[in-house]
Amino acid sequence: MEGKTLRFGIEGAWLTAFVRQQVFSEGKDPKHMVELMRGFMCGTDQTEAEIDRQAEDVLLGRAEFRGNPRDGSWCLAMFPAGEEPGDWDMFGKIAEIMKKNKLLEDQVAAYKGKYSAALEAMYDSQRNNFLQSIGEAPKDMMPTILREFLDRATDDESHETADYGWLEPDGTFHEVEWGEHTKWADDYMREHMTDDEWLESEIYNSGDYLTQRGWVLLHNPAQGIAIPTKDPTKRYTKAQQDFLYGYYIDRNQSDRANEIMEE
């Protein structure tokens, strides 16, 4: 059986467009494209540095490949200054890339800002759990619950207010022993609601009854420095912010104090 020979050719215009696209649209390393073009520019007495410079000129629009090796028309056309074809605006491409890069940089900066803000808005335990989930938290980090407990247990300073309790919208603070906040809220409801109001009320959780009326609970299940809990649909009043700011400053928790004032 008589064999057949397959011959492959490449058009100069296609190669010119391809290497430019790879660099200016696909973001490929120009050095790799120069190495690629070097294989189509052999057979002359030029040095490698001269060949590389001409390959760079192809990328810059100062030269282009033409013809086809199959019919012997393959060549590299060099353009004198000011006579480059108008269909390739290298500086326009660079400006376009720089504009896209700037846009991406701005977007990255915006996302970093949102990321930092989200971390700052988290309680320590939430922040550390999140960081651990994405592999950013130190492996030897002390569990937050234990650290908060130790922070309070080793705090031998006297404070102007008790550690736990209920805070009214007008800033009045009611001291409550740790773990007794639900009972205190139950007693408050019994004292301030009539029997009919109690029976008609759809509030079955006394804590909800208070927070829905703008109260803030200062409590910490780990017996650490209190974490404020409020109705998520309500904002702190000015009186509550002032109280909480002083509460955390008094306990050397300036970050938490500032978070309260920034809400």
Describe the structure.
This protein has 263 residues and is an alpha+beta fold. Helices cover 50% and strands 8% of the residues. The protein has 11 helices and 6 strands. Strands 4-3-5-6 form a 4-stranded antiparallel sheet. β1 and β2 (75-78) form a beta hairpin. It is rod-shaped, with a radius of gyration of 36 Å. The protein starts with 11 loop residues before the first helix and ends with a helix. The model is unreliable at 138-142 (pLDDT under 50).
Topology:
Layout: H1 12-24, H2 30-38, H3 48-60, E1 63-66, E2 75-78, H4 90-121, H5 124-133, H6 144-153, E3 165-167, E4 173-175, H7 181-192, H8 195-200, H9 206-211, E5 216-219, E6 227-229, H10 238-249, H11 254-262
Antiparallel strand pairs: 1-2, 3-4, 3-5, 5-6
Helix pairs in contact: 1-2, 2-3, 10-11
